[in-house]
Amino acid sequence: MFHHYTGNRQFDLQINRLCFSFEGNKKVEADLKEIVPKLKDIPSWNKVWKEYALMREAKGDYDIAATYFFGAGFYLLEGDKDREFIQRHRLKNFYQAYADLGFEKYEIPYENTKLSAAKFSHPKADKNLLIFGGYDSNLEELILWFAPLKNSGYNLVIFEGPGQGNMLFKDKKSHFIMNFERPTAAVLDYFALDKVTALGLSWGGYFVMRAAAFEKRIEKVIALDIFYQSLDALMTGLNPISATLLKTLIVCRQEKLIDTLISREMKKSLDLSWKINRGYELTGIRTPYKLLKDLERHSMKNLGPLINQEVLLLAGEKDQYVPVRRLRQLKKELVNAGRVSSCLFTEKTGGEQHCQAGTSLALEAVKDFLDGKI
Predict the structure, then answer these.
(1) What is the DSSP track for 281-345?
(2) How high is the pLDDT of residue 78?
(3) Which end of the chain is more exposed for a tag (fewer CB within 10 A), N or C?
(4) What is the structure's pLDDT at 207?
(5) For residues 4 and 12, what is the distance between their CA atoms, to the nearest angstrom?
(6) Number of neighbouring beta carbons within 10 Å of residue 371
(7) How far apart are CA 54 and CA 58, in angstroms?
(8) Cβ contact 281:78 at 8 Å
(9) CA nearest 183: which of 156, 211, 204, 213?
(10) Domain locations in the chain?
(11) Is 239 strand, coil or helix?
């Protein structure tokens, strides 16, 4: 279930995301009783998670330490002196804790860089599941998310695209792109895959649709969960007046007014401030208006008819980034899809939050789709 730890929607989402796999772990439960009351703002968030990460690392709890280090680095911005330190320790602890999980690491040539990837190979599998994330996921997080599928009869290929996850550290010139079919094709070529099911997590719910529209080696599509357009995620959390004003200013191309409005709202909202600052790093763009115009291209508009694969759409009733009305819209626009299945998770069913955080319900739905049960 989703735990409301602090009352701050963004903080609570991230804590559920971080700690769900440790549900019932006495060490983590004890830590959270001490950690949660100390989380007042971003500086305290960074400080507290780092403190407990170092403590768990010293005690040899490398799996917990890796997760806490991810938390410690989540809100850190470019140029912060702690970022490289936390990244090194996160990776060191993760691979020390999960060396025997059963995956192999790869570096896949792509344009002028290399994409990080991991593969779970199943000895009897004749099917392949391609997995990628979105705005703030990383390879190691995805490995843990989807490791439970490693015995599902599929080989799992997980990768980071341009500007995602660890790419932000190893290649400063690698930036977030709209046309995700390009890195997808590079990964399919590398592993010589001609038929795959593709799954995109969070913003990856858009990326997987975009990839499927132009890359027909993808036979089935899973959006976990749906993601119709970038401006949905960037505007949720704004008060209705500011949101309406911003939409009008974007249409009218009022660059200076948009820069002023966004800068003002960023001072009021932890969530918006993080989204915009992370967007600067992902894209290399440095002003709100230009960032919004770049990310505006990440949209399902006109893509629906190009998708002729079987599709699974997952959505949360209380998703803080994607309006639930987009589920109905997507189903309507997928006019040429082979078959469209969907799951809408509610407070009653559980899984109502973004990517069904705090539950295993999304993964269960994915398994059912792969098995042909939905």
Answers:
(1) HHH---SHHHHHHHHTT-B-TTTGGG--SEEEEEEETT-SSS-THHHHHHHHH-TT-SEEEEEEE
(2) 86
(3) N
(4) 98
(5) 6
(6) 10
(7) 6
(8) yes
(9) 211
(10) 9-97, 103-229+298-370, 231-295
(11) coil
- The answer to whether the CB of 113 falls within 8 A of the CB of 103 is no
For 108, the 3-state DSSP assignment is: strand
| Segment 132-147 mean pLDDT | 96
Q: Mean of the pLDDT values across residues 28-45? A: 96
Phi/psi-derived region of residue 89, left when phi > 0, alpha when psi is between -120 and 50, beta in every other case: alpha
Instruction: Please tell me the pTM assigned to this model.
Output: 0.95
Q: What confidence category does residue 79 fall into, taking pLDDT thresholds of 50, 70 and 90? A: confident
Cβ burial, residue 241 (10 Å; 0-12/13-18/19+): exposed
| pLDDT computed for residue 351 by the predictor | 96
- Longest Cα–Cα distance of the chain, Å, equals 59
According to CATH, the topology of domain 103-229+298-370 is Rossmann fold (3.40.50)
pLDDT in tens, 1-24: 899 999 999 999 999 999 999 999
